[in-house]
Design a protein that fits this description.
about 15% strand; four-stranded antiparallel sheet; alpha+beta; 5 helices
Length: about 130
């Protein structure tokens, strides 16, 4: 079947993720159904994830369980959206794109086979 999901495997953002952009209520309902299937898949396998909802848009980021990174902070909405909250000037001065990239790559990216299995089971099921 046809899916509304757009699969992101960006070299700039190391965590593969799904996006849905909708413009009608019919597309919104289908996107919500697809997204819910993916979330159910992740929950059943105890794979953590972040879901960001905006008007007409859904972003689903499956990830590894959070470890103590970025001075003990766990990834949530701001970090997944690209905003890092620093509690000190020293933390802020220590952030750079290489640190962020390597931290996400090493600590948050799920195995690509889990991501691909979710896509096959939820988005391309007949």
């Amino acid at each position: 079947g046809e899916t509304l999901a757009h699969v992101e495997r960006s070299k700039d953002f190391v965590i593969p993720f799904l996006t849905w952009k909708t413009s009608t209520s019919q597309k919104t309902a289908k996107a919500a159904q697809e997204c819910q299937c993916c979330i159910d898949f992740l929950v059943k396998r105890e794979i953590p994830h972040n879901l960001i909802i905006n008007v007409g848009e859904l972003y689903l980021f499956p990830r590894k369980p959070a470890r103590s990174v970025f001075d003990g902070k766990m990834p949530g909405f701001p970090e997944m959206a690209g905003a890092f909250i620093c509690l000190s000037e020293e933390d802020y001065d220590g952030l750079d794109s290489n640190l962020i990239y390597s931290t996400f790559r090493d600590n948050f990216r799920i195995h690509i086979s889990d991501f691909e299995m979710m896509i096959q089971k939820c988005l391309f099921q007949e």
